[in-house]
Amino acid sequence: MDFISKQYEEMKDKLIKLETERRSHLAYIQSLEIKIDNLETSQKQTSIEIRNLPVQQTETKSDLLNLVKKIGMVTKINIDENNVRDIYRLNKNKAIVAEFSSVLLKEKKLNSIKNHNKINKDNKLNTTHLQLRGENKPIYIGEFLTQKAKRLFYLARDFKYKNGYEFCWTTHGKIFLRKSTHHLNCD
């Protein structure tokens, strides 16, 4: 009986040790995931994502750069090719990513698009502005977010619609929600 009791205690101690190690490993993995997300966010600070642009049959980086320049002309911000570090399409039929030379230029670009869409509420940025063939489609441009941030942004927009919030947006890789344009009184 003492032998069985001793084995039981040893197994119990091993199980407790393994559970402690597992918790420690999970915490370490979580800290690594946070570090990776922070690095990705830092790496993508100068990039924008352009969605809903049709794919051309033989598309080159020059073609993509010309599209970004046209968007710049429409939204009244000059984009010089020296200001674009890299440009590429994520996958076929997917978004275009444009990486600018500075965060300031990226912010100017995003602000010019916002202003254009505010002024032209009935004719927001779309494919006809770029003189692209085919049906008129809206063009969506925003920050290039990490996968984790994209998922969170999706959930935040869903929360916005379900809970009567007016605004949901991203700035510098962070997601924000606002109930309304009215300021809250803090008594």
Task: Describe, in short, the structure shown.
The chain is an alpha+beta fold.
Descriptive report:
Residues 1-49 form a coiled coil. InterPro entries: FP_C. Helix content is 48%, strand content 16%. By secondary structure, it is of the alpha+beta class. The strands form two sheets. It has a four-stranded antiparallel beta sheet, covered by helices on one side. It has a two-stranded antiparallel sheet with strand order 5-6. The radius of gyration is 24 Å and the shape is elongated.
**Could you name the CATH topology of the largest domain?**
Alpha-Beta Plaits
- Major sheet: order of its strands? 2-3-1-4
Shape: elongated
Instruction: Give the biggest sheet.
Output: 4 strands, antiparallel
CATH architecture type of the largest domain: 2-Layer Sandwich
Counted up, domains total 3
Total helical elements? 4
Report helical residue fraction: 40-55%
State the name of the first-level CATH class of the largest domain: Alpha Beta
Low-confidence runs (pLDDT<50, min 5 residues)? none
Order of helices and strands: HEHEEHEHEE
- Mean pLDDT equals 89
The first-to-last residue Cα distance is: 70 Å
DSSP strand (E) fraction? 15-25%
Give the number of DSSP strands: 6
Q: CATH homologous superfamily of the largest domain - what is it?
A: L1 transposable element, RRM domain
Quickly give the structural class: alpha+beta
Radius of gyration: 24 Å
